[in-house]
Amino acid sequence: MKFDSIPNLTLPKIGFGTWKIGGGSSPNPTTDSVSMAALHSAIETGYTHFDTAEMYANGHAEELLGDAVYSSQIKREALFITTKVTPSHLQYDEVLRSCENSLRRLQMDYADLYLIHWPAAGMKLADTFRALNKLVRDGKVKHLGVSNFNLKLLKESEQLSETPIIINQVPFSLSDRSYVKNGMLEYCQKNDILLTAYSPIDEGNLRTNAKLEAIAKAHNATIFQIALAWVISQPRVITIPMSANPKHIRENFEAAEIELSQSEVDQLTNR
Ligand SMILES: NC(=O)c1ccc[n+]([C@@H]2O[C@H](COP(=O)([O-])OP(=O)(O)OC[C@H]3O[C@@H](n4cnc5c(N)ncnc54)[C@H](OP(=O)(O)O)[C@@H]3O)[C@@H](O)[C@H]2O)c1
User: Fold this and answer.
1) How far is the CA of 243 from the centre of ligand 1 (A)?
2) Is-catalytic flag, 56?
3) Using CA atoms in the order 190, 255, 35, 118, what is the torsion angle rounded to 10 degrees?
4) Alpha carbon distance 196, 136 (integer Å)
5) Which one of 56, 114, 179, 198 is the catalytic residue?
């Protein structure tokens, strides 16, 4: 595994996403055995960063992740757990309640990282951060971050947070560079903030082309692995692909070992 660092924190370049674990926007218990097998497979493969949210399967993804961690007997300190507060819960009391509920479902005393999942129209960010800062002071959360924030909101968050904002989690893939174009990646790279790339293989719908195919062939890798290798070749970028398939779970983890040449990175960037 490769790692990326900001002051006082080192994270693996590739972690594990949990959207669709346990259901979509509502729980789907008929998929629990596949979801649990996927989580166990990820833990056994060696993933240590897990990304979830109270919104995923309406809390059921957190429950399954908690069960998988508990039953695997892996040490809590060996893991980095990210979860997120839903945009409709951004008032002071709601943030505190959401975090308490997430920790109960995860069966954990603290989350390593707590993110505002999406900005909400009319949100009072100062009120939200009053609660987030309290969660850090109370030891319920180790680090704070945001997700789907633009530069203006990120800078506002940095002003309001008593501890450094360590992450903005945004879409980033070969086909979605919107957060490069809007200046976010460059800002993060200059300011000790990690950009977590979500949907790094376009939710499984990665579009291929001759260049991608040729580079995959040269590395004896799949196009998905090359897409992940390209994402993490960017400084200050980590990612969290999701898969319920143990073969893909291993392939995604091993993508971190692929060494793309600068020419290959450039060809993919300009494809
Ligand atoms: N903050 C936010 O607003 C936000 C939004 C979206 C996502 N996220 C986070 O980011 C994570 C990743 O994003 P995502 O789940 O949207 O999309 P993704 O990771 O780009 O793609 C997941 C899909 O790709 C397939 N897949 C995975 N690895 C594969 C491989 N090696 N070969 C072929 N197919 C593969 C999976 O199917 P199989 O199960 O068949 O492998 C699954 O359908 C989420 O799980 C979530 O934790 C955050």
Assistant:
1) 6
2) yes
3) 20
4) 21
5) 56
Q: Which among 145, 140, 88, 157 is positioned nearest to 114, based on CA atoms?
A: 145
Share of the chain above pLDDT 70, in %: 100
pLDDT reading at 271 higher than 80: no
- Over the stretch 54-86, which tens digit does the pLDDT of each residue have? 999 999 999 999 999 999 989 999 999 999 999
Distances (CA, A) of 43 to 16, 66, 76, 257: 9, 12, 12, 18
pLDDT at 254 (0 to 100): 98
Question: Could you tell me if 83 and 111 are in contact, meaning their C-beta atoms sit under 8 angstroms apart?
Answer: yes
Do 258 and 2 meet the contact criterion of CB atoms below 8 Å apart?
no
Those residues with Cβ within 8 angstroms of residue 220's Cβ, 6 or more apart along the chain or in another chain? none
24 lines ligand 1 (CB under 6 A): no
Read off the tokens for 251: 């392939």
In this prediction the pTM is: 0.98
3.20.20.100, 3.40.50.2300, 3.50.50.60, 3.40.50.10300: which CATH number matches 9-205+236-245? 3.20.20.100
How much is the average pLDDT of 169-177?
Answer: 96
Tokens coding 124: 């009072």
